[in-house]
Amino acid sequence: MADWSPQEIEDRVREIWAGVLNAGEGEEDATFFELHGQSISAARIIARIEDEFGVAVDIGVLFRDCDVAMLAREVMATERRP
After folding, report:
1. Of 64, 78, 37, which Cα lies nearest the Cα of 16?
2. Residue 82 above 60 pLDDT?
3. Strand, helix or coil for residue 55
4. Which of 58, 49, 64 has its CA nearest to residue 9?
């Protein structure tokens, strides 16, 4: 993941988020629960992030009713963990 800039990470996380949660125009800043996120959508998001970036993000972050920016920050922070 070292080749990704923070903006590229956020953009790609946003694409994953929107694709799984069917976020439409005007819903870019909506939270996981505002977009009717459920366990299966959380698992899909986390699996796609793991496939894309090669990092294991805690699924619990989604259940803290995060938004896409918070999730992107979590992805970036996970990269730095030993």
Report:
1. 37
2. no
3. coil
4. 49
Contact 18, 72 (CB under 8 A): no
Assign 28 a pLDDT band (cuts: 50, 70, 90).
Answer: confident
The answer to whether 52 touches 44, Cβ cutoff 8 Å, is no
49 Cβ contact partners less than 8 Å away, ≥ 6 residues apart: 13, 16, 55, 57, 71, 75
Q: Is the pTM of this model over 0.85?
A: yes
Beta-strand ranges (E) seen in the chain are none
4 phi-psi bin (left φ>0, alpha ψ -120 to 50, beta other):
beta
Q: Which two tokens stand for residue 9?
A: 């990470």
